[in-house]
Amino acid sequence: MITAGIDVGSISAKAAIMQDRKLLGASVILTGYNVQNAGRQVLDRVLSELNLSASRIDKIVATGYGRNSIGFADKAVTEITCHAAGGFFLNPEIRSIIDIGGQDSKAIVIDKDGRVRDFSMNDKCAAGTGRFLEVMARALEVDLDAFGELSLRAENTASISSLCTVFAESEVISLISKGAKRENIIAGIHASIASRVMAMAKRIGISPPVMMTGGVAKNIGVVKALEEKLDMPVIVSEHAQVNGAIGAALIASTV
Amino acid sequence: MRAIMAAYYMEAKTPKEKTGKQIAWITSGGPVEPLHVMDVIPIYPENYGAMIGASKMGAGLCEKAEQMGYSSDLCSYARADIASATVNGGPIGGLPAPDMLICCNNICGTVLKWYEVQARYFNVPLFILDTPVCHTEFNPDMKRYVTAQIREYITFLEKTCGKAFDYDRMKEVGKLSVQAQALWQQILDTTMNRPAPMTCFDAFFHLAMIVTLRGTQVVLDFYESLLHEMKDRIAQGIGMVPEEKYRLIWDNIPVWYRLRWLSDKFAAHSACLVADTYTSGWCSSMKYLDENDFLGSLAEMYTRIFLNTGTGLMADNIIELVEKYGADGVVFHSNRSCKPYSLGQYDIQRLIQERTGIPTLMIEADMTDERYFSESQIETRIDAFIEMLK
Predict the structure, then answer these.
(1) How far is CA B101 from CA A10, B107, B209, B218, B247, in A?
(2) According to the model, what pLDDT value does residue A163 have?
(3) Which residue from B minimizes the CA distance to A76?
(4) How far apart are CA B379 and CA B237, in angstroms?
(5) Among the three residues B119, B145, B166, which one is the final residue of a domain in this structure?
(6) Chain centroid to CA B225
(7) A152, A179, B126, B141: least buried by Cβ within 10 Å?
């Protein structure tokens, strides 16, 4: 049985194809304006990469913020359930997941069977999310992909205290004007995300092993900052960004 | 019910020369029965706040209050009321001006300043009833302290109305109030039946009567017919949520401007909100009332309401609801406006999970100010919560 999972997030759309619990391939594109279109495009992309025709797909599950807009999907499932399923598939040892995506961050506690036991999400605010990092990258005129490596070179982590993205941006601008080093500022941004996420994760009692998923997991600086704040190692899979889509494809085989 | 509420507001808005009745604005948890004894029409700015919210006029009035200099962190009922008073805003074009204000702080501390503002604005006398918080218990000192104030309350009414308090009439009104609370409890308890003949969204609507008119006969007549209707539904096996699968408890004041959306959302998941801490607040402390010594027991009943208790007692109360109504989960509305209601929720959440093992959900919003509602965030949380229950 071949299944597809489509995860349409606020910034990027992801698709994963699975066959009998094996990952055949995955793709990521920018979501853009048209959610339905993004879902279709990312699926077409991964299918063409795999040289697979759409008719071979037995079931499709959609997830992410755009999940209810994917008309051709057989079912819509939330990204919380999908990230739990995907993370548990990639590593059945894990008991907690921290997912930081474009517009929200989540902490998920799962049981030994991979079922969601509890979850928490950020308040309706962009601080501590991928969008927050994008705003900061623009203010610092640094390519977001370079953020992780740069922050590891920080000598003194700058202090960013504001809980609000807009105010944090002003803080960053004032740090820039004071001549603070980019590396230090970026490390401060990562530390600020990590402390927000930590508070949320501790509230629902996350326990190790912890896996980090979502696009922000590609940023080594955030991962390191989280490890420090949580005082726990954080596992990151190479499939972190497409983890939700993998979970959706897994769930699709049971639809 | 709409007709009864319309008649109530109509009378209140009729010029005093015609009705001969004075108007008192009173907080939702205030002792209203003595007002009925004195033939004073009680008006609830909080009830009007709910109406403003349900009419989606909350954000506009809150913005107006912010322009007047009030902080956006202030309770949205307070903001809506303060603004509405100056522009005759809201669904019925403003509330009738008060002749006096009755403020009881058993529901929150905000009401003190809010009512002081209104007392200055309308230049009318204000009576404050101070009910100490029952963190872990209600003790004889508290009883003496509040009872003494009940006597002052009556003196205040006698002076403001210019007539003597009729203690015999108080007994009658007291009986009617106790009966109304008992009936309201019976109505809420019909949801112990599976499937539940109504949901808390229905209770949010029918609540207006017990809040505003308890102590009068019209409440009894209306609730008796409502109870009859619910019993009928039970007899016929009719549930409010088709194919009810999950039974949930709601905590905090409703999100007035999204009642329909939330009700549809839960119903689409076959989830029925069978009980809540909000509507049961108008009968849960009935057990402290003595029908034969109404005035004597008033202090205890009004001091021991849900919102005036400590976090531990609140958790006990919710766990009682979980057990009584056979709930599978608890939905918490973290209400930006209502600090006393929302402050202990994370602890209560943890206590419920420890003691009952059932899952809980937290959604962040505001009761009246729709600018604090993020639909896709809340939708994802509710969907994920139901997936977790499966």
Answers:
(1) 50, 16, 20, 24, 40
(2) 73
(3) B383
(4) 30
(5) B166
(6) 21
(7) A179
Burial of B324 (0-12, 13-18, 19+ CB in 10 A): middle
Residues A71 and A191 in one domain: no
B23-26 and B100-104 beta bridge pairing: parallel
Give the tens place of pLDDT for each residue, B231-278: 999 999 999 999 999 999 999 999 999 999 999 999 999 999 999 999
Token pair belonging to A106: 């989540």
Instruction: Please give, rounded to a whole number of angstroms, the shortest distance from the CA of A68 to a CA of chain B.
Output: 11
A 101-130 near B (Cβ less than 8 A) = 104, 115-121, 123-124
Q: Name the domain count of chain B.
A: 2
**Number of A–B residue contacts, CB under 8 Å:** 40
Looking up tokens 């009935």, which residue turns up?
A: B286
Q: Of B346, B353, B364, which is closest to A123 when you measure between CB atoms? A: B364
List pLDDT tens digits, range B329-343: 999 999 999 999 999
Task: Tell me B134's DSSP state.
Answer: B
pTM of the model: 0.92
Query: What are the residue ranges of helices labelled H in A20-146?
Result: 35-50, 79-90, 130-140
Domain match, B118 and B260 both? no
**Cis omega before residue B195 (within 30°)?**
yes
Q: How far is CA A17 from CA A8, A12, B169, B332, in A?
A: 15, 17, 76, 37
Instruction: Give the Cα separation of A193 and A2 in Å (integer).
Output: 38
Residue B190 is classified by DSSP as G
Q: What is the ipTM of this complex?
A: 0.87
